[in-house]
């Protein structure tokens, strides 16, 4: 399951989505996330699904690799579905057992909220899989650059966000190594109920924290050895500029938002 988390990883490619300006990719991703929260009917979710499938097709990413990002959060998605299924009293009763009651409205809300979580995870994964760490840092910094007039540390914040995001797969890889080492010594992480599995994970925390601090210290020393002094006076090998594909993507997501707004107003 640890290897299935794709958020924070970069999948090298030469697709139009990989070549998009990182600023526009971030903007489109943020607008798409807003669009997900505007959906209130199944027609809206169909529009969101078609838009995402179009982006996945353009990115040329393997479908199986993309779907792996949902697997680690499957428990949370199922829990969200079950809670909304039984805790939504509105609608006509479909099934009742004691104080537990399933209604048609509850079933619909549970399915919609679960789909919303899935789309949020997939959209974040699609952004990081098609954007290199350097491009992501430059994109965030350029988007926040207007705030420099009020002495906002745009470069430092962008660097912190990117390092934190890119540390996710590194820490997961380290966790996997520690788990395998402890399993070789007789540790069992697979059997038992949820509480027993969670208790078995406790011995992982100390070596994982030690490894995280060690890697952070190594990264800090590497940046210092390369005379990293922040964003002031820093030049870029590639100058960001918007192309036709960027405007097409922005227009497409704007049309999606407009359709969803009309859906909320008239449906």
Automatic annotation (TrEMBL):
Topology with respect to the bilayer: Multi-pass membrane protein
The record's section on InterPro entries has:
ABC/ECF_trnsptr_transmembrane, ECF_transporter_component, EcfT
GO terms (molecular function) for this protein are: transmembrane transporter activity
Annotated Gene Ontology cellular components are: plasma membrane
Q: Where would you find this protein in the cell? A: Cell membrane
Write out the transmembrane intervals.
Answer: 26-58, 70-89, 109-129, 247-266
Which Pfam families does this one have?
CbiQ
Keyword terms of this UniProt record: Cell membrane, Membrane, Transmembrane, Transmembrane helix, Transport
UniProt keyword Amino-acid biosynthesis, yes or no:
no
Question: What does the record give as the function of this protein?
Answer: Transmembrane (T) component of an energy-coupling factor (ECF) ABC-transporter complex. Unlike classic ABC transporters this ECF transporter provides the energy necessary to transport a number of different substrates.
Q: Which family does it belong to?
A: Belongs to the energy-coupling factor EcfT family.
Q: What is the protein's name according to its record?
A: Energy-coupling factor transporter transmembrane protein EcfT
């Amino acid at each position: 399951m640890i290897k299935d988390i794709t958020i924070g990883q970069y999948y090298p490619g030469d697709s139009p989505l990989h070549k998009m300006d990182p600023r526009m990719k971030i903007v489109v991703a943020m607008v798409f996330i807003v669009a997900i929260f505007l959906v209130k009917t199944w027609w809206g979710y169909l529009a969101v699904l078609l838009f995402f499938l179009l982006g996945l097709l353009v990115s040329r990413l393997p479908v199986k690799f993309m779907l792996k990002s949902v697997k680690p959060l499957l428990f949370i998605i199922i829990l969200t579905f079950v809670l909304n299924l039984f805790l939504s009293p509105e609608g006509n009763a479909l099934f009742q057992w004691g104080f537990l009651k399933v209604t048609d409205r509850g079933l619909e809300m549970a399915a919609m909220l679960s789909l919303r979580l899935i789309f949020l995870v997939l959209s974040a994964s699609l952004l990081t899989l098609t954007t290199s760490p350097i491009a992501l840092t430059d994109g965030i910094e350029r988007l926040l650059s207007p705030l420099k007039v009020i002495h906002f540390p745009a470069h430092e914040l962008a660097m912190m966000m990117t390092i934190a995001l890119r540390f996710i797969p590194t820490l997961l890889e380290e966790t996997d190594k520690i788990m395998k080492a402890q399993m070789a010594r007789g540790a069992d992480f697979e059997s038992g109920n949820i509480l027993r599995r969670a208790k078995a994970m406790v011995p992982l925390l100390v070596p994982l924290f030690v490894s995280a601090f060690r890697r952070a210290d190594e990264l800090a020393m590497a940046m210092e050895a390369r005379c990293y002094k922040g964003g002031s006076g820093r030049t870029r090998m590639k100058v960001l500029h918007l192309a036709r594909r960027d405007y097409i993507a922005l227009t497409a997501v704007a049309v999606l938002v407009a359709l969803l707004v009309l859906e909320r107003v008239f449906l």
